[in-house]
Write a structure and sequence with these properties.
By secondary structure, the protein is α+β, with helices and mostly antiparallel strands. It has three helices and seven strands; from the N terminus they run E-E-H-E-E-E-E-E-H-H. The radius of gyration is 27 Å and the shape is elongated.
């Protein structure tokens, strides 16, 4: 009889999200990559893991991402908070301002190369503005 097996990392018990179907567990084990194990059943890699010391499948919530998230009980995962979204929007806005300044500096560089005495101070102003914006990205 064909059975479903969920694959997991043998070092930490986390499911890989991949499944195999086999009728013989010994044949299945012979085809698994190093460090990967299989357990019978179709398990959810987002909310379950294998407890290595007991071999049982237990509920699991992955650690939060780098941004400050909020727990989502329905999916047993994480979702971004509005503060994290605001932070991403601010970062995008700063990067857009840097790109706009970099576009402007192209003409100023050309003018400085052609000998315009006023171009070099303008180029320094643009560079200083870019440096200030980059500080906001840290």
């Amino acid at each position: 009889m064909l059975r479903t097996y969920s694959l997991y990392d043998a070092t930490n018990g986390l499911f890989t999200g991949k499944r195999l179907h086999a009728d013989d567990p010994q044949k299945l084990a012979a085809h698994l990559p190093d460090g990967i194990a299989a357990i019978e059943g179709a398990h959810d890699h987002r909310s379950q893991r294998v407890q290595l010391d007991t071999g049982r499948v237990v509920d699991y919530q992955p650690p939060p991402p780098a941004e400050t998230p909020a727990s989502d009980a329905r999916s047993r995962g994480w979702r971004r908070t509005s503060a994290a979204g605001d932070s991403r929007q601010r970062r995008s806005a700063v990067l857009a301002m840097i790109r706009a300044l970099e576009v402007r500096q192209g003409r100023t560089i050309r003018e400085a190369t052609l000998g315009d005495a006023l171009a070099l101070p303008r180029l320094r102003e643009i560079d200083a503005a870019i440096l200030e914006l980059r500080k906001q990205l840290c």
